[in-house]
Specification:
Keywords: Nucleus, Repeat, WD repeat. Its main location: nucleus. With about 500 residues, this protein is an alpha+beta fold. The chain has helices at about 1-10, 20-50, 70-80, 80-85, 390-400, 430-445, 460-495, and strands at about 90, 100, 110-115, 115-120, 125-135, 140-145, 150-155, 160, 165-170, 175-185, 190-195, 195-200, 210-215, 220-225, 230-235, 240-245, 250-255, 260-265, 270-275, 280-285, 290-295, 300-305, 310-315, 320-325, 330-340, 345-350, 355-360, 365-370. The strands form 7 sheets. Strands 1-28-27-26 form a 4-stranded antiparallel beta sheet. A 4-stranded antiparallel beta sheet has the order 2-3-4-5, with no helix packed on it. It has a 4-stranded antiparallel beta sheet with strand order 6-7-8-9, with no helix packed on it. Strand 10 (about 175-185) and strand 11 (about 190-195) form a beta hairpin. The longest helix has about 40 residues, at about 460-495. The protein is elongated, with a radius of gyration of 34 Å.
Length: about 500
């Protein structure tokens, strides 16, 4: 328990004995006591509410064994029976290559074959919920807000189906879509078609929220940042552009690679982004500074971050997993896995709340065990893998009530709800201006005059000088009144002028 409390403390406490100020010493003592109480409460919550602990592969301290040399067969022999069942291969050579998608709870998986095969699988019971053959090309598949609805990017248009395989909608406005993404907090379906057009459609009302032209050519590399719901698109020129539905121009345009961008992924905290290019390099970016943190060698066709920050990269029939085990944002090789020779990987996706990596390839799909990849404890209010139909309906109603408008999508969502620090200066009233002018006049009248000789201190001369001082004090106030009057007059002339006489108004000279 003491170790858990130490984990939640805010570092070393202040040295109160060295302070001489009694008031400051008392305030810091109270704060240190509050920090200790909050750390103890957090440790108790972790003990009772989060009993499971995540762990990674461990080898001997001598450095002879390496984690990436451990095979899946060795892991399957050591784990329990339920975990060993999560390691399998589904071979469907007639319909591949396959792409995969998991729900936010990790309970259901949607698999789509390039040659028209669609399937929904219950991963808890390992049962096939529904499968159908659409008899045309399927490029991508995505779940909507829950497992009841999913969208498939088919040959000409994207279609929306329900869990029973019934076609609900044909979204003809999107065109021939190459990639689909769903913004869960905003209920927006985002798609990029073969002409480089980015569409946003509200699935609750059916309204097309945004139709944007990227102007950077055809691409099938698109991903949503889970932190701020900004859509990032990778282009053939090596740039990554970030978009929101209410802006016709990209929020950010980054030059990430000298050649085409082949894959893109975001960390669950939203601050890290991984990109892969044709020059055989994988770059990890800090989105708070837009700087490269690390460059890893290797060609990559698919990328994905797990909930605990592991990065999976796939190319050909080889899958490599990188891990930041030290917490210093320095990724190193963690695990390797080779599929049967000739299988070409198309998609890698970590299953939420499980130490499982799903791999979609040209001959079906596979599932392998990656220790430490999933979050060991789930919050039933956020994602519940064991939710009942009643809980699902209530959650759907709550999420619809909490739906965010598209205008809230921005790079830094923490700015929403804040108040601007700069305030407009209050304009002085007419009485204030008159009082200020009278005070300046009184000050000019009471100004003492120097006594001069040879008739220069006559009463008439003194009165004249005082009158000049009063006029000089009045001058700035009168000029300000004249400027305000001329502005008002100009505005009234512009607004009250009839349309038939507008052509006779003298126009301002345009400076070239």
């Amino acid at each position: 328990m003491d170790m858990k409390v130490k984990k939640y403390l805010r570092g070393e406490g202040a040295n109160l004995e060295a302070l001489k100020d009694k008031k400051l010493k008392g305030q810091l003592a109270v704060k240190e006591e509050l920090y200790g109480k909050s750390a103890t409460a957090a440790a108790k919550a972790e003990k009772w509410l989060m009993p499971s602990e995540g762990g990674y592969l461990e080898v001997d301290d001598k450095g002879i064994e390496k984690t990436w040399r451990i095979k899946q067969e060795a892991i399957a022999r050591e784990v329990d029976i339920l975990s060993s069942r999560k390691q399998y291969d589904i071979v469907l050579p007639d319909f591949g290559p396959y792409t995969l998608e998991f729900t936010s709870s990790g309970r259901y998986m949607a698999a789509a074959g390039r040659k028209g095969h669609l399937a929904i699988v219950d991963m808890k019971n390992m049962k096939l919920v529904k499968e159908l053959q659409v008899r045309e090309t399927v490029r991508d598949v995505i779940f909507l807000h829950n497992e009841q609805f999913f969208a498939a990017a088919q040959k000409k248009y994207p279609y929306i189906y329900n869990r029973d395989g019934t076609e609900l909608h044909c979204l003809k406005e999107h065109g021939a879509v190459l990639k689909l993404q769903f913004l869960r907090n905003h209920f927006l379906l985002a798609s990029i078609n073969k002409f480089g057009q980015l569409h946003y459609q509200d699935v609750t009302t059916g309204q097309m929220v945004g139709n944007l032209r990227t102007g950077l050519g055809r691409t099938d590399v698109m991903q949503v940042n889970p932190f701020n719901s900004v859509v990032a698109v990778g282009h053939s020129g090596g740039t990554v552009s970030m978009w929101k539905p209410t802006s016709a121009a990209p929020l950010v345009k980054m030059l990430c690679h000298p050649g085409p961008v082949t894959a893109l992924a975001f960390h669950s905290n939203g601050h890290l982004m991984a990109t892969a290019g044709m020059e055989r390099k994988i770059k990890i970016w800090d989105l708070r500074k837009f700087e490269v943190l690390q460059t890893l060698p290797g060609h990559c066709k698919a990328l994905d971050f797990s909930q605990k920050g592991l990065l999976a990269a796939a190319t050909g029939s080889f899958v490599q997993v990188f891990g930041d085990l030290s917490g210093s944002q320095n990724y190193s090789r963690y695990m390797n896995h080779s599929i049967a020779k000739g299988y070409q990987v198309k998609k890698v996706a970590f299953r939420p709340y499980e130490d499982v990596l799903g791999i979609g390839h040209s001959m079906g799909w596979s599932s392998i065990l990656i220790p430490g990849s999933g979050e060991p404890n789930f919050d039933s209010w956020v994602a519940n893998p064991f939710e009942t139909s009643k809980q699902r309906r209530e959650k759907e109603v709550r999420s619809l009530l909490d739906k965010l408008p598209p205008e809230t999508i921005m790079l830094d969502p923490t700015k929403i709800g804040t108040v601007r620090s700069t305030r407009k200066k209050e304009q002085p009233t007419k009485e204030d201006k008159e009082a200020e002018m009278e005070a300046a006049i009184d000050e000019a009248k009471s100004m003492p005059m120097k006594k001069k000789t040879k008739g220069r201190s006559k009463p008439s001369k003194i009165a004249k000088k005082k009158q000049e001082a009063v006029e000089k004090a009045k001058k700035p106030f009168l000029e300000q009144q004249m400027n305000e009057f001329s502005k008002k007059r100009k505005l009234t002339e512009e607004t009250q002028l009839p349309k038939s006489l507008e052509r006779f108004v003298r126009k301002k000279a345009v400076v070239a």
